[in-house]
Amino acid sequence: MLEAKAIKRILDAKTREVVGWLYEWNTGEVAPFWRAGQRDNVVYE
User: Fold this and answer.
1) With helix as H, strand as E and coil as C, how does the chain read?
2) Backbone angles phi, psi at 33, to 5 degrees
3) How far, in Å, are 5, 27, 42 from residue 35 at the CA level?
4) pTM above threshold 0.85
5) What does the pLDDT look like over 1-45, one tens digit per residue?
6) Contact 23, 33 (CB under 8 A)
């Protein structure tokens, strides 16, 4: 069974608005989940 947990928030680098979350799957894979489409200028917190 696949499971994932949010490990970091993805923030817009300029506005610091949350634009997504970084998830880690129980397989070890890490993947982003975007609120409204992928962004380029981001920071992870």
Assistant:
1) CCCEEEEEEEEECCCCCEEEEEEEECCCCEEEEECCCCCCCEEEC
2) -125, 115
3) 16, 23, 13
4) yes
5) 989 999 999 999 999 999 999 999 999 999 999 999 999 999 999
6) yes
Q: Give the separation between CA 38 and CA 5, rounded to whole angstroms.
A: 19
For residue 9, the tally of other CB atoms under 10 A from its CB is: 15
Place of tokens 């489409």: 37
CB 9 within 8 A of CB 16: no
Q: Tokens 């917190």 label which residue?
A: 45
